Amino acid sequence: MAAVENIMVNRFIFLLLVICASATSVLAQPEEYQFSRIDIDNGLSHNQVNSISKDRKGFIWFGCMSGLNRYDGYKCKVFKHDSRDSTSLIDDYIVRVMEGPEGFIWVETGNGFNVFDPYTETFERNILRSLKK
After folding, report:
1. Angle at 76 between CA 73 and CA 81, to 5 degrees
2. How far apart are CA 121 and CA 101, in angstroms?
3. Cβ neighbours of residue 33 under 8 Å, at least 6 residues apart?
4. Domain annotation covers residue 7
């Protein structure tokens, strides 16, 4: 009787080990991710990226040495300084990009902060005015 019980216990342990081993091999399978390379050949303003941020709408923002880039998953829209336009960036050298309250994008440049309004697609250079909104 003891020998039969031993065989049954051994079979149970063996079966348990097989189940555990198959479960871990299923869980350990690597997931496949698709990556796209974004660089100047794909519309990025510069290959040196200083800051990356994702906003609540899903846009990826890249702060580069030569402008601010908004990536929608397909293409980049580049925002740059224009000396004839007071609603453009104050400087092209982007240090940091972050999303602030109400979906406004705060952009730190080499010459100070700008606040991007996604509804008008313009920049406010006077951050005190933006803070009062």
Report:
1. 150
2. 16
3. none
4. no
Q: How far apart are CA 75 and CA 92, in angstroms?
A: 19
Stated pTM of the model: 0.72
pLDDT (tens place) for every residue of the chain, 133 residues total: 566 566 665 676 666 666 666 655 555 556 787 777 888 988 999 999 999 999 999 999 999 999 999 999 999 999 999 999 999 999 999 999 999 888 899 999 999 999 999 999 999 998 777 676 6
> Residue 99: which of 66, 68, 65, 128 has the closest Cα?
68
Return the closest-CA partner of residue 111 out of 123, 95, 98. Answer: 95
Range of the domain at 121: 40-125
Q: Which two tokens stand for residue 53?
A: 């941020």
Q: Partners of 106 in the beta sheet?
A: 98, 115
- Residue by residue, what is the 3-state secondary structure of 42-66? HCCCCCCEEEEEECCCCCEEEEECC
Q: Per the domain annotation, does 11 fall within a domain?
A: no
